[in-house]
């Protein structure tokens, strides 16, 4: 699939009708979502035929992108039932299979090494302080190969350091 | 929810040390075909909790998987086994039902294919 085509499909997805501010809900735009997943696959081979988890999936933009890039299996996790309903509709609309789980990802311990890649656009921590690091910590525990995550530019060095020092990352890069 | 997802979910209620696997109470199960990718299935085999998969599949009405995890040689020699594993892992969907904690009996409801794993305040 070409990047432009992926971006076009993602642009048609339903988004939050009433975003919940306290959960920092906002859509992941098609421009960044398509590029993020395209890079993850084309530069690193982390999406196609892999098991991909989307933490804080919201309306499912990154999950759908992973599925469109032929992930073997995609699982989206979110705390908000309304978002998950929208995500389910989006998956149906684009005829992709995605499993969704309603949970608090910071309290969910996933067993085993099934998940290869975690993709996410987590809360930045503007509402609940440290939320971004909690999501990153959870993702690092679960992903056996790679984590792709969006963060505030101002936190770049902090995140790289935390990933290497505290979360057992073999490497950490800003892409 | 498919069994590939079930294979990673456990009960995280405070104090519960091994809430895995969750027992499946199947209300409504549907089957949806997806493309068979033998390499992916071979690759997954070593990572699966076999007993959890077999019991989960049985709860969803599919009893074709062997009770004990077979020798890895079967991955090369037996395509019908790979297809059964593919079917169990990726084509069975629990639409309505519950996932039950093996230690406490607490039920996590599954509606429209989505398990609700949110804990109550006193369980955290």
Which structural traits does this protein have?
heterodimer; A: 175 residues; alpha/beta; Rossmann fold; 5-stranded parallel β-sheet; 6 helices; 37% helix; globular; B: 124 residues; alpha+beta; 4-stranded antiparallel β-sheet; 4 strands
Quick take:
The complex is a heterodimer of chains A (175) and B (124). By secondary structure, chain A is α/β, with parallel strands linked by helices.
Shape of chain A: globular
- State the total count of DSSP E strands of chain B: 4
CATH architecture of chain A: 3-Layer(aba) Sandwich
Oligomer: heterodimer
Q: What distance separates the N and C termini of chain A?
A: 21 Å
The helix-and-strand class of chain B reads alpha+beta
Q: What are the secondary-structure elements of chain A, in order, as H or E? A: HHEHEHEEHEH
Radius of gyration of chain A: 15 Å
Question: How much helix is in the residues of chain A?
Answer: 25-40%
Summarize the amount of helix of chain B as a percent range: 25-40%
Mean pLDDT level of chain B: 96
| Low-pLDDT stretches of chain A | none
Biggest interface, chains and residue tallies: A-B, 26 and 29 residues
| CATH fold annotation of chain A | Rossmann fold
The mean pLDDT of chain A is 94
Shape of chain B: globular
The main pleated sheet of chain A reads as: 5 strands, parallel
């Amino acid at each position: 699939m070409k990047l432009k085509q992926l971006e076009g499909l993602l642009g048609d997805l339903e988004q939050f009708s009433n975003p919940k501010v306290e959960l920092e809900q906002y859509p992941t735009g098609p421009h960044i979502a398509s590029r993020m997943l395209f890079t993850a696959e084309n530069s690193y081979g982390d999406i196609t035929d892999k098991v991909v988890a989307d933490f804080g999936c919201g309306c499912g933009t990154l999950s759908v992108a992973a599925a469109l890039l032929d992930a073997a299996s995609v699982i989206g996790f979110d705390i908000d039932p309304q978002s998950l309903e929208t995500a389910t509709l989006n998956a149906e609309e684009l005829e992709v299979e995605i499993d969704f789980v309603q949970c608090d990802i910071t309290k969910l311990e996933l067993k085993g090494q099934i998940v290869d890649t975690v993709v996410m656009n987590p809360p930045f921590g503007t509402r609940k302080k440290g939320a971004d690091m909690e999501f990153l910590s959870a993702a690092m525990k679960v992903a056996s190969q790679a984590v792709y995550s969006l963060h505030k530019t101002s936190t770049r060095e902090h995140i790289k350091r935390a990933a290497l020092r505290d979360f057992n990352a073999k490497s950490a890069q800003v892409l | 929810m498919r069994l590939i997802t079930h294979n990673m979910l456990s009960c995280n209620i405070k104090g519960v040390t091994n809430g895995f696997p969750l027992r499946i109470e199947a209300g409504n199960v549907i089957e949806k075909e997806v493309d068979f990718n033998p390499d992916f299935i071979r690759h997954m085999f070593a990572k699966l909790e076999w007993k959890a998969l077999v019991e989960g599949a049985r709860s969803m009405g599919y009893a074709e998987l062997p009770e004990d995890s077979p020798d890895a040689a079967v991955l090369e020699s037996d395509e019908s086994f790979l297809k059964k594993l593919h079917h169990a892992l990726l084509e069975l969907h629990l639409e309505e039902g519950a996932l039950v904690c093996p230690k406490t009996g607490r039920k996590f409801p599954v509606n429209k294919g989505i398990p609700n794993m949110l804990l109550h305040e006193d369980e955290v």
